[in-house]
Design a protein that fits this description.
Layout lengths: L2 H6 L5 H5 L4 H11 L4 H8 L3 H15 L4 H11 L11
Keywords: DNA-binding, Transcription, Transcription regulation
GO molecular function, one term: DNA binding
Pfam families: GerE (PF00196)
Length: 89
């Protein structure tokens, strides 16, 4: 399902959005939501920048998102992050 289709259908529940994602992909997704660049994600999760970039690319493909902005929207819709919430640990 494309990001546009999921947005048009209304907010997806967290289990639907996160289904099929690995634990590490969920961690990367949360970091994208708080605005971290690939290099920052790498430092936060002890990954190389190239590996962080690969995870973000996989998330874009798996979730049918056009760009990082759509990933952030999906993060909020899923409940993975909330407005004004603390950054992921």
């Amino acid at each position: 399902m494309s990001a546009e289709a999921s947005l048009a259908a209304g907010a997806r529940t967290r289990p639907e959005l996160l289904e099929g994602l690995t634990e590490r992909e969920v961690e990367v997704l949360a970091r994208v939501a708080v605005g971290e660049a690939n290099a920052e994600i790498g430092v936060s999760l002890h990954l190389s920048t190239a590996t962080a970039r690969t995870y973000v690319s996989r998330l874009l493909h798996k979730l049918g998102a056009r760009d990082r902005s759509q990933l952030v929207i999906l993060d909020y819709e899923s409940g993975l992050v909330s407005p004004g919430g603390a950054e992921p640990s």
